[in-house]
What we know:
With 202 residues, the protein is of the alpha/beta class. 42% of the residues lie in helices and 18% in strands. The protein has a single domain, classed as 3-Layer(aba) Sandwich (Rossmann fold). β3 (74-82) and β4 (85-86) form a beta hairpin. This is Oxidoreductase.
Amino acid sequence: MKLVAVSAGLSSPSSTRLLADRLAEATRAGLDGDVEVRVVELRDLAVDIANNMVTGFPSAALREVIDAVTEADGIIAVTPVFTASYSGLFKSFFDVIENTALTGKPVLIAATGGTARHSLVLEHALRPMFAYLRAIVAPTAVYAASEDWGGSGDAITDTLPSRIERAGRDLAGLMSGLSGTAKRGEDEVVPFAEQLAALRKS
């Protein structure tokens, strides 16, 4: 299986890249068999993404990354929080991907920020975006504030390592359930008579 982690961190080293790496490792640990893991740093493709937005044509390097993402069995998408939302670079990358290319694709969403006050970015920005793209978003999303690295959690919030582990298990479960299936296009319509027959059997 192929797992691609997309990191929109701008600095090097980057806490966003570190979170992407740890989520990828947790997902790999939850999968049986060989898993090919690739981490994509969007900052290396910033100019290519901007040019694609203007011209409508991706460079060879960007096309190769887009193909890797759309052909993966699972995706980890991690962004830093800018102005209470995902970064422009993160959004621009997913904007240049055809909006049906992620249909039925398992996606784990995550974000990093300086304060826990921005943790709802996962629910008000990232989850709706991937729902629009008709991806299957893992139930556990991970937000890592500065104090989470090395923090001990509290009575309500688990530690960052435990959240990463749970999110990795979620994505691994989705990938295992969907791997080997045909690529999904438009939703298949089940005839009404067939639906009734299934109800009678149960």
